[in-house]
């Protein structure tokens, strides 16, 4: 595969979605290869339907392992249908979340075990790992405050409504992953302003993949 696979990770309230929108515009303007921007869970019709089931606040009885398996199932279909074909065509793929999210949210947040979640995702992805991961780090208090201010009660999904302790476990696991895989994961301080966060993300990508950009 000749394409580049970059993922954006971070706890709830890190500003991933806003950052990706701005980053997409900058990359489209300056890359000399095709770009697709996608998300997980989602990105294709089957995975978007699974996303609705996972995040629906009405599904509060969902078992933790069921949740983890649904994420892995959505990821598998997304990979086969969208990500792998794009990478095979020398496309630059920017994805909102990937396996690291499952390790942090289900493995640590839900306390079902990072190794167990890694195992089912190894099966789902056949070991595909992003070339680069930008981790937007924000503390739970800041992240949850942003969510409360930016969304109505009706817009809060199942994960938004979890306790602060849950989100602390998520952030802690993300930080552990960044320490464990320093060659892949670059940590960006997401407590900074959005424009500065986006600029830092762009600079990391451009420095690492200068050959993909217009001179």
UniProtKB/TrEMBL annotation:
GO terms for cellular component: cytosol. It catalyses: dTMP + ATP = dTDP + ADP. Keywords: ATP-binding, Kinase, Nucleotide biosynthesis, Nucleotide-binding, Transferase. ATP binds at residues 10-17. The keyword ATP-binding applies. GO terms for molecular function: ATP binding; dTMP kinase activity. Its EC number is 2.7.4.9. The keyword Transferase applies. It comes from the Bacteria. Residues 8-200 form the Thymidylate kinase-like domain. One of its GO terms (biological process) is dTTP biosynthetic process. It is an enzyme of class 2 (transferase). InterPro entries: P-loop_NTPase (IPR027417), Thymidylate_kin-like_dom (IPR039430), Thymidylate_kin_CS (IPR018095), Thymidylate_kinase (IPR018094). Phosphorylation of dTMP to form dTDP in both de novo and salvage pathways of dTTP synthesis. Belongs to the thymidylate kinase family. This is Thymidylate kinase. It comes from Vagococcus elongatus.
């Amino acid at each position: 595969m000749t394409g580049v696979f970059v993922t954006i990770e971070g706890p709830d309230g890190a500003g991933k979605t806003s950052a990706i929108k701005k980053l997409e515009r900058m990359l489209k303007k300056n890359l000399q290869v095709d770009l697709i921007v996608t998300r997980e869970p989602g990105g294709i019709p089957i995975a978007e339907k699974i996303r609705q089931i996972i995040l629906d606040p009405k599904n509060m009885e969902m078992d933790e392992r069921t949740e983890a398996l649904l994420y892995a199932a959505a990821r598998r279909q997304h990979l086969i249908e969208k990500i792998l074909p794009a990478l095979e065509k020398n496309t630059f793929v920017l994805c909102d979340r990937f396996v690291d999210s499952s390790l942090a949210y289900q493995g640590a947040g839900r306390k079902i075990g990072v190794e167990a979640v890694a195992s089912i995702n190894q099966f789902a992805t056949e070991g595909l790992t992003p070339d680069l991961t930008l981790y937007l780090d924000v503390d739970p208090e800041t992240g949850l405050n942003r969510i409360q201010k930016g969304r109505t009660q009706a817009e809060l999904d199942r994960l938004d409504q979890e306790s602060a302790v849950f989100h602390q476990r998520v952030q802690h696991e993300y930080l552990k992953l960044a320490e464990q895989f320093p060659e892949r994961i670059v940590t960006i301080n997401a407590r900074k302003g959005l424009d500065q966060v986006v600029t830092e993300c762009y600079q990391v990508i451009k420095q690492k993949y200068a050959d993909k950009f217009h001179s």
